[in-house]
Write a structure and sequence with these properties.
Number of strands of chain B: 0
Strand content of chain A: 15-25%
Largest interface: A-B, 48 and 37 residues
Shape of chain B: globular
CATH architecture of chain A: Alpha-Beta Complex
Order of helices and strands of chain B: HHHHHHHH
Radius of gyration of chain A: 22 Å
Strand order of the largest sheet of chain A: 2-1-10-5-6
Strand content of chain B: under 5%
Distance between the termini of chain B: 22 Å
Structural class of chain B: mainly alpha
Number of helices of chain B: 8
Mean pLDDT of chain A: 93
Largest sheet of chain A: 5 strands, mixed
Structural class of chain A: alpha+beta
Helix content of chain A: 10-25%
Number of helices of chain A: 5
CATH topology of chain A: Sulfite Oxidase, Chain A, domain 2
Low-confidence stretches of chain B: none
Oligomer: heterodimer
Helix content of chain B: 55-70%
């Protein structure tokens, strides 16, 4: 073996040992949003935001693709299915010209959007239903959301479940405050009376059992995001 | 270096991918599982997983995917710029006959090995097939990561759930190849030394 090969072998070994040490100390599966894994999540979030095109739509699907009755999963974090409290209304605040409270009837008087698109869950399953409601961008216009509010926070009556979104995804034409599914009013299992539904995020970003929408200058994390799941979570 | 860096990178991607699969160990959309998949509802074994839980595994997967892609891009550039692709890639008109003869020899249907250079046709086929699998792994992974923003790619693969099946089948084939490849290297230890050191230049 020619002599000049030796240094390069040593360098390889050093690089490998270094990489192994770095990986072990900076990749903590129990805290995936910190260390090296966290830095890579921030890189991925920037890449996802750069890739995001506000005009690109999730394909509308034919009725035959609808998930069979009872097979569309109903997720919530409370021990039992959360039920709408008496006198429910949606509180809208943050950087808006006209903060206030909207009843379901008031929301239903705003322009209605219908869509049937594929749902992508972080767990890996997909399902299809049709949804109807009012676009987030429509609500933002109605309450006069400030252009400097780069984030939208969503709160619920499901044991503190919440999330926050980047403005471009929240204002996407397929992001709705949905009050109906498959032509019917929402059932408690799917987030009655009002939930977020969108073609551009994973399921856990679509907060159900909504109580509050706030237009804010900073992101505010969320239930799963605070437990280690990605914040951006676009699809 | 670039070549065997694939082993730890593929192990990380496979382990974290299998941990992600645990969250929904089925193929096909909700309510319509694929009939051909024999392991519906069977989670992959614990020893093969990395990342402890879904969020941990996803972070591993999407962090190290970059390095696998970078390694692959560097490798393809090397193949193209060095002219090595002529020696290593399977070119059907040149290599198909040799690949068949070599296979016949291995199967004892033929008494002697066909004449060959550094690589025979069968080696070139396996080699090129693995590159194609690697490319398919990356493309199906991108389709799963961005089924809407990269909707054309997802549609090309037959949709989100089909892309998920492709991603898993590609993993199985790559795992088979890697196990076979490493077994052959261990049977011929000198080739390992040559791989690590870069080997002798056969033309020298």
């Amino acid at each position: 073996m020619p002599r000049h090969r030796l240094p390069s072998l040593l360098t390889r070994r050093a690089a490998l040992l270094g990489a192994t040490g770095l990986t072990a100390s900076a990749c903590d599966s129990s805290r995936p949003r910190e260390g090296f894994l966290g830095a890579m999540e921030r890189l991925n979030a920037r890449a996802q935001a750069a890739l995001f095109d506000a005009r690109r739509l999730a394909p509308e699907l034919p009725p035959e693709e609808t998930t069979p009755p009872g097979k569309f999963p109903e997720y919530f974090v409370s021990d039992t299915v959360p039920l709408m409290p008496a006198g429910w209304a949606l509180q809208v605040g943050g950087m808006v010209a006209r903060p206030g409270v909207l009843s379901l009837e008031a929301l239903q008087r705003l322009p209605r959007t219908d869509l049937r698109i594929r749902h992508h869950c972080v767990e890996g399953w997909s399902a299809v239903a049709s949804w109807h409601g009012v676009r987030m961008s429509e609500l933002a216009r109605y309450v006069g959301a400030d252009a400097r509010a780069g984030y939208v926070e969503l709160r619920s009556f499901d044991a503190g479940y919440s999330s926050s979104w980047d403005r471009p995804s929240a204002f996407h034409p397929q992001t709705l405050l949905a009050y109906g599914m498959n032509g019917q009013p929402l059932t408690p299992g799917h987030g009655a009376p009002l939930r977020l539904y969108s073609g551009v995020k994973l399921g856990y970003k679509m907060v159900k059992y909504l109580t509050e929408v706030n237009f804010l200058p900073e992101p505010t994390g969320g239930y799963w995001e605070d437990r280690g799941y990605e914040w951006f979570a676009g699809v | 270096m670039a070549h065997w860096l694939n082993v730890p990178l593929l192990l990380i991607m496979a382990g974290s991918g299998l941990q992600i699969l645990v969250a929904y160990p089925m193929l096909g959309p909700k309510g319509r599982p694929y009939g051909w998949y024999p392991f519906q509802g069977v989670p992959p074994p614990e020893w093969a997983r990395l990342g402890d839980w879904l969020a941990g595994a996803r972070h591993w997967h999407f962090a190290f995917a970059w390095f696998l892609v970078l390694n692959g891009v560097a490798y393809v550039l090397y193949l193209a710029l060095s002219g090595e692709w002529r020696r290593r890639l399977f070119l059907p008109r040149r290599d198909a006959r040799n690949a068949l003869s070599t296979l016949a020899y291995y199967l004892r249907l033929r008494g002697h090995a066909p004449a060959q250079g550094l690589y025979n046709g069968l080696q070139r086929l396996a080699y090129t097939g693995t590159l194609a699998l690697g490319l398919l792994a990356v493309l199906s992974g991108l389709a799963l990561y961005k089924p809407v923003q990269l909707g054309a790619l997802t549609a090309l693969l037959g949709g989100y759930d089909a892309a998920r099946a492709v991603h898993l089948v590609v993993l199985a084939l790559l795992a088979l190849f890697t196990v076979g490849h490493i077994a052959l290297v261990l049977l011929h230890p000198r080739s390992l030394a040559e791989m690590v050191s870069g080997g002798r230049k056969p033309d020298a």
